[in-house]
Amino acid sequence: MTAPAVKRRTVAFVAAVLVAVGGCVSTGPGQGSGHGATHASRPGPGTSTMRGITLPSWNRTDYDSPAAPRYLRGIRATGARWVTFTPTWYQKRVTDTGMHTTEETASDASLRRIVGRAHAAGLKVMIKPHVDLPGDLDRAEIRPRDRAAWFAAYRRFITHYADIAAGTGAEQFAVGTELAGVSGDTTAWTKVIKAVRDHYEGPLTYAANYDEYQHIHFWKALDLIGIDAYWPLAEKPTTDPALLDRAWASIRQKLAAYSARQHRRILFTEAGYVSQRGSTTAPYSWTVSTHPANAEQAAAYQALLDSFEGQNWWAGVCWWMWDDWPGSGETPARLAYTPHGKPAEEVLRRKWAH
Which residues contact 148 (CB under 8 A, 6 or more apart)? Predict the structure, then answer.
């Protein structure tokens, strides 16, 4: 999930690592299952779950903001044990053969510093680099005119951040996010993943959109299946726990079966709901309405956590997102994805208190 307008986009709707309270256990690819390549030093399967919140950046200096220490303390106070950072490069057109930094790309120095601050605050870190397009264009539409050139550029981009992840001791890394237009190229992605493993030894995932994950054929080269879990849960705005539970029940059944087939646990690399009326009908939208609906957001948080709690194949969730940076928010906080200061934050505190 990235932001609307110049700094953000709305995720398009198409048709329709692992951590204990004080520690981390990661699933190595194929260990215990006989599937996939692995590194001998990587731990075997775990059963703990990520409790995470994303702190994205929209400007090169965001992660050096005076607000950063306060935000990290606020994330930690929810009971979260992980934070995700999202340095972002851009390309102007969906057909471009490369990506580049802009003034909206977090500086490398600021990323290194905020990882250090997160660790000092008692949080584990996932670095999840993004590639975005201008305005409301969806990164899933990226289809470069020269795929070989694009993937060569992408390997340079992603291994740059793999080096930062290794150098800062980040506990997990995502090799890509919601790139449905190119994620079908299994051979190219396998080469990307191999290149990343040459730079970084920790657990790897890819963050597929909820309507993309079944089309990915390189999961066994990774440690976790990552899904950005923006499934619509209702046709009309609702706070009804029974209705939300029924919606998740059918999704949960499919995910459990998929996890078993792939011999990988599933991490919700993103999940979130704006505090707007109708957020359960379109969780991927920043602008589903102009009417605040804190109760609907809180009900959606509660339903997701209740629905997946205790499922051993489920590796946890990293919520999208904490507070926006001062001066950068294009959605008022009272309507935005942040749970901070809303009933949804109290849901997290209750569920994550133990």
Answer: none
Residue 44 has pLDDT above 80, yes or no: no
pLDDT at 33: 29
Give the amino acid at 208.
A
In percent, the amount of the chain with pLDDT more than 90 equals: 83
Judged against a pLDDT cut of 80, whether residue 20 lies above it is answered with: no
Supply the DSSP symbol for 44.
-
Tens of pLDDT along 76-91?
A: 999 999 999 999 999 9
Residue 181: count of CB within 10 angstroms of its CB: 16
Give the chain's domain count: 1
Which of 232, 218, 123 lies closest to 176 in space, CA to CA? 218
Cβ pair 353, 79 in contact under 8 A:
yes
Per DSSP, helices labelled H in the chain are: 68-77, 108-120, 147-168, 186-197, 241-262, 294-308, 343-351
Q: CA distances (Å), 239 to each of 144, 244, 252, 277, 284, in order?
A: 42, 8, 19, 10, 18
Q: The domain spanning residue 78 has which CATH number?
A: 3.20.20.80
Pairing between β-strand 50-56 and β-strand 314-319 as defined by DSSP bridges? parallel
Amino acid at residue number 290? T
Does residue 1 lie in a domain region?
no
Question: What's the predicted TM-score (pTM) here?
Answer: 0.89
Range of the domain at 136: 50-351
pLDDT of residue 41: 31
d(CA 285, CA 138): 12
Phi, psi (5° rounding) for residue 75? -60, -45
137: in domain: yes
For the chain, how many residues are written?
Answer: 354
Residue with tokens 């256990």: 25
- Has residue 44 been placed in a domain? no
Residue type, 51: R
Whether residue 259 lies inside any domain: the answer is: yes
